[in-house]
Amino acid sequence: MAFRDVLEIEVIGGNGGDGSMSFHRAKYMEKGGPDGGHGGKGGSVYLRAVEGVESLERLLGRRKFKAGTGNGGEGRLRNGADAEDIIIDVPVGTTAFDAETGKVVADLIRPGQLKVVGRGGAGGRGNSVFASSTRQAPRFSEIGVRGQKRKLRLELRLIADVGLVGYPNAGKSSLLAALSNANPMIAAYPFTTLSPILGVVSDDTGDERFTLADIPGIIEGASEGRGLGLEFLRHISRTRVLIYVLDVAVDPVRELESLQGELRSYDPSLLESVSLIALNKVDTVDEDVAVMVEDELVRFGLPVLRISAAERTGLDELRRALFELLPARELWAQTHALEEESDAVVVPPLELELREEADKDGQIERIWVVAGGGFEEKIARFARHLEDAAEYLSGVFKRQGLYNALRRVGARQGDSVDIGGMRFEYFDEDDDTRR
């Protein structure tokens, strides 16, 4: 399977089922009371992090995920069934961004982690719930809420314990093969590795282990998108320890300065990661040259280990050092999780705008256009029975402060109020001219 670490999908939560407008009918009972049941909840779309999947490639055949609609309510107080949810399995390390806003919707860094990304709509209430002492036969019910719809950009950032960072042909693939059970392609030319490769490294007893990732070679300008730089750097951000793999014979001091510069440009926090330097290919130079280079690298403040992946020298010391340096996985996960978008439904603030239009007789009509405050959504839920629900809605708007807000901005008796394209006449109950 080809490696795929970026993918765009569309998720659509299911609509809530409509509430029922029904009245009890029985023999010898000509006029029964309201008995409309509630609609079921629409299905939601979830992302779930799973192990054993290392690419987004498996999702390529399907780009749209739509959950089902809740069943409508029925008479005799029978509620509609909720629709089933959809769960999309993605690799551990997947981050989902809202394609429009760029906000993080889900950051899945632990196996089994579940996050709703397309919320299902609530079911509408049946007319039975709207009965009262003054409204004994409500001839209206609610429409179910529409499900959440949006496009997501999925980015896979490999969850590896240790990441190998270095320029092309620094010997990272050879080091991965020597330390772990991985079998990467190895050749003496740059960019042999075009996708991250994972291996597992065990300690001397075989009881402890960690995953090691060969991140494809970085080039200068990678943080600005040159080559495949951004794709490579994305995976480095998820490793608990970084190994800078430097070729002892190719100006390693300059290479390290350049590598750290690219990491700093992409994400300065990467330089705070636990790190060490693997000075590779020491078998190709005299020992005094290797010692001199090691002394020059000490000023970077990182442990330096001289190794030869090809000759398998210094690897036991490197393996032991990595086990000692690895921070606790749970603590690391807590400090490296991205801030996710809140699950709370945000109601936009109330906005009132006065417009003046001439009617067919040339008279100027004052119209207050209402936006935000949740009032448009409330109107939409009674669109099928708006005339019958007008009295109920008027009471809701009053209790939720709309009339007071209109009065404060100068609304007058007889002005029109426009909410979601529906027009109402404004009445001020405190207006003395009505008495």
Physical arrangement of strands within the biggest beta sheet: 10-11-9-12-13-14
In whole angstroms, the N-to-C terminal distance is 79 Å
β-strand number: 18
- What portion of residues is helical? 10-25%
Helical element count? 9
CATH class of the largest domain: Alpha Beta
Report the order of strands and helices.
EEEEEEEEEHEEHEHEHEHHEEHHHEE
- Major sheet, described briefly? 6 strands, mixed
Morphology = elongated
Task: Quickly give the structural class.
Answer: alpha/beta
By CATH, the architecture of the largest domain is named 3-Layer(aba) Sandwich
Content of β-strand? 15-25%
CATH fold assignment of the largest domain? Rossmann fold
Number of domains: 3
The low-confidence runs, each spanning 5 or more residues with pLDDT under 50, are 185-193, 221-229
**Average pLDDT score:** 87
What is the assigned CATH homologous superfamily of the largest domain? P-loop containing nucleotide triphosphate hydrolases
The value of Rg in angstroms is 32 Å
Main location: cytoplasm
InterPro entries: G_OBG (IPR031167), GTP-bd (IPR006073), GTP-bd_Obg/CgtA (IPR014100), GTP-bd_prot_GTP1/OBG_C_sf (IPR036346), GTP1-OBG_CS (IPR006074), GTP1_OBG_dom (IPR006169), GTP1_OBG_dom_sf (IPR036726), OBG_GTPase (IPR045086)
Cofactor: Mg(2+)
Keywords: Cytoplasm, GTP-binding, Hydrolase, Magnesium, Metal-binding, Nucleotide-binding
Secondary-structure topology with pairs:
Layout: E1 6-12, E2 45-50, E3 64-66, E4 86-91, E5 94-98, E6 104-108, E7 114-118, E8 149-156, E9 162-165, H1 172-179, E10 197-202, E11 209-214, H2 229-236, E12 241-247, H3 252-266, E13 274-280, H4 287-297, E14 304-306, H5 315-325, H6 329-336, E15 351-358, E16 364-371, H7 375-380, H8 386-399, H9 402-408, E17 416-419, E18 422-425
Parallel strand pairs: 1-3, 2-4, 9-11, 9-12, 12-13, 13-14, 16-17
Antiparallel strand pairs: 1-8, 2-7, 5-6, 5-8, 10-11, 15-16, 17-18
Pfam families: DUF1967 (PF09269), GTP1_OBG (PF01018), MMR_HSR1 (PF01926)
Organism: Deinococcus rubellus
Domain OBG-type G: 160-327
